[in-house]
Amino acid sequence: MENKGRKYVGIAKIGYNKELKNPICCKYRFNDINKFISFVTVKFPAVAWINIYERKGVNKNKLAYTWGNIKGLCPAN
Predict the structure, then answer these.
(1) I need a surface site. Which of 3, 8, 46, 73 has the fewest CB within 10 A?
(2) Sheet of 8-17, strand order
(3) Residue ranges of the domains in the chain?
């Protein structure tokens, strides 16, 4: 039986708490990278970066892509 879960996990830095001196991040699971980046940039216009990890296969739980508001989408290593 095929696992119907999401293919990627994305962690995005959407803000910064000045009082606690901690970044504010959110985590989403998704299948389509381009749709996810569009969604996050619309919902959180101040997003600084996104780390995208694979959830399945040989590279499970390893960083696959990074996205920054200056560089855009880049493969990890």
Answers:
(1) 3
(2) 22-30, 8-17, 49-54, 63-68, 72-75
(3) 8-75
